[in-house]
Write a structure and sequence with these properties.
- 74% of the residues lie in helices and 1% in strands.
- With 291 residues, it is mostly helical.
């Protein structure tokens, strides 16, 4: 009797969630797969012409899509390094027993609470007006200029904004990992003569691998899927120098009306992100140390 009641409670809480997940995620995903095999402009009155794999063949011949793929890879590699190094350094600083550590944690985490669109507009003002003003007043106008107009610097500017948003979030995860390390291990290593660098590399980093797994996954998937900051900060410019995967798909569907072709790009995008994140999780999981 108790088991029947338990099952009823499980069903009461899981069935509505499963229904919502199926309706919002699974069904649109399956419809998207179907759209990727048709040629359609998105107008309901117009017919959907089945073209088979033509959309998938065409996307590998689309220079703009391949260019956006390369920009995404560049951005992801830079963001992966900058975000995780910054988050780790910040976590080590705020767990060092400083008096202002609590205030510092709050301050560093706050950018993550700002929406990506708003964040992009804030930094757009910084890179255009503030940088140019600093350049005029200091004479360093070769550095302090509008980065968003330079194809080489615009991508770096996007990395800076993404890192400013994500570093505080990864910091919190690294802090949780650091606080989970038994203090006895560090004290024993110190008694045995290990200096600070040795304790950090031989004890702290290996025991932080679960945190590395989570942070690398979040950063990798977030960097590949970036759209809101990309849209509000650069809109893919200048000259498509910062147009990344998600924005290219958005433009293909909503700007050019190529729903089938754009959906084929979205399916390939999904497969790439899934493969990379799954590979990363498997590789980092193998290096985790059990305490």
């Amino acid at each position: 009797m108790n088991k029947s009641k338990d099952r009823a409670w499980y069903a009461l809480f899981t069935v509505p969630l499963f229904f919502v997940f199926t309706t919002v995620v699974i069904v649109p995903f399956l419809i998207g797969i179907y759209y990727s095999f048709v040629k359609w402009d998105g107008i309901p009155a117009n017919p959907k012409v089945f073209v088979g794999l033509d959309n998938y063949v065409q996307l590998f011949q689309d220079g703009r899509f391949l260019s956006s793929a390369w920009h995404t890879v560049e951005f992801t590699v830079l963001a992966l390094v900058v975000v995780n190094v910054a988050g780790l350094v910040l976590s080590l600083c705020v767990t060092a027993g400083l008096r202002v550590s609590t205030a510092a944690r709050t301050m560093f985490f706050m950018p993550n609470l700002i929406g990506g669109l708003i964040l992009g507009y804030i930094w757009q003002y910084i890179f255009t007006d503030v940088f140019e003003s600093i350049g005029r007043q200091t004479g360093f106008d070769s550095v302090f200029r509008n980065w968003l107009l330079d194809p080489q610097l615009a991508l770096l500017a996007t990395v800076i904004v993404f890192a400013w948003q994500m570093a505080g979030y990864t910091m919190i995860i690294y802090i949780a990992g650091i606080q989970g390390i038994p203090e006895e291990l560090l004290e024993a290593a110190k008694v045995d003569g290990a200096n600070g660098r040795q304790r950090l590399t031989k004890i702290v980093f290996p025991l932080l691998m679960p945190s590395f797994t989570i942070c690398l996954f979040l950063t990798l998937s977030g960097a590949f899927k970036i759209f809101d900051v990309n849209l509000s900060l650069t809109k893919g410019g200048p000259v498509n120098a910062t147009e990344m995967f998600a924005m290219n798909i958005y433009n293909e569907i909503f700007s050019y009306g190529h729903y089938g072709f754009g959906q084929a790009k979205a399916i390939i995008f999904f497969l790439i992100v899934a493969a990379l994140t799954l590979t990363q999780v498997i590789l980092t999981k193998r290096r985790e140390v059990q305490m």
